[in-house]
Amino acid sequence: MRIATGWKKYEILDTAEQEKLENWNGIRLIRPDPQIIWKTPKAQGVWQTADGHYYRSSSGGGSWTFHKNPPASWEMPYEPLQLTFKIQPTGFKHTGLFPEQAVNWDWMAQRIRSAARPILVLNLFAYTGGASLACAAAGAAVCHVDASKGMVQWARENATLSSLTEKPIRWIVDDCEKFVAREIRRGRRYDAIIMDPPSYGRGPGGEVWKLENNIYDFVKLCAEVLSEKPLFFLLNSYTTGLSPTVMGYLLGSILKPKYGGSLSADEIGLPVKSSGMVLPCGATAIWETNSH
To answer: What global pTM score does this model have?
Structure first.
């Protein structure tokens, strides 16, 4: 497992009974996590310090209950890459940041710096821009694509907080698949692709996206927008039951016949303070070139 250990202001304090208690730069939140199937005792002195608690509804969705009136939003620094993010609890339990992805940010930044050539990155399903900013800070030009106008605006705010507004980042609000198809027709090519697709969703025309049904065809399409000497292709998954090895095989079956290169695939996770163990938080498969 690859573990995100670079955070100074974020940590998981404890986990039990499908919930995790997190410290987000001084604000403590309790959020659900279906992977936490263990029923270890909750240390009351710790769990009772929470500022907010997200409760799932039996009818779907859920809502926040706040105990200490935390600010509507606040900042979270990621010191290793000198990035800063806006944290804001949303109606779907999220905060605008997936801290476990920092292990990928670090890897991508190092890979871009060591390439010793200009790198153009395409970040699809790019959310609030963690990967986009990590790549831009490392010297890449980035095309950031997400179908949600609100998420792209949030990403731009994070770029401002991180003093990266002058970096070459294109901010695109569009359906990822339609955008890639247009880029292919335009003749645009990218040296690296990052893809963080949802497990399930609906497109603007009501099209159903289901990861295990759609991901192969979409990765195959994206391979057509790669440059002649691509650097890497990184694919994230939060779909329970879709193993890292399956995603690695998928990437390899599409990319290795043309580009060679090497594959790695593993769970990513975050350390838990109370137990000293690691909470799994999804998986990442990576194809990368064997030379710069």
So the answer is: 0.94
The pLDDT tens digits of the residues spanning 191-225 come to 999 999 877 666 656 666 677 778 899 999 999 99
Dihedral angle computed from the Cα positions of residues 183, 213, 129 and 100, in that order, rounded to the nearest 10 degrees: -150
Q: How many CB atoms neighbour CB 93 within 10 A?
A: 17
Q: At what angle do helices 176-186 and 211-223 cross, to 10 degrees?
A: 20
- By the 10 Å C-beta count (0-12 exposed, 13-18 middle, 19+ buried), 228 is classed as exposed
d(CA 162, CA 141): 16
23 C-beta neighbours (distance < 10 Å), count: 18
- Which residue intervals of the chain are DSSP H helices? 44-47, 102-115, 130-137, 149-161, 176-186, 211-223, 244-259
Identify whether the C-beta of residue 96 lies closer than 8 Å to the C-beta of residue 167: no
Cβ neighbours for 174, distance < 8 A, ≥ 6 positions apart = 145, 147
> How far apart, in whole angstroms, are the C-alpha atoms of residue 12 and residue 21?
6
Using pLDDT thresholds of 50, 70 and 90, give the confidence band for residue 20.
very high
**37 DSSP assignment:** -
**What distances in angstroms separate CA 54 from CA 13, 50, 70, 198, one per listed residue?**
16, 11, 14, 21
Amino acid identity of residue 49, one-letter, is T
Report the distance separating Cα 277 and Cα 231, nearest Å. 33
3-state helix, strand, coil in the chain (%, to 5): 30, 35, 40
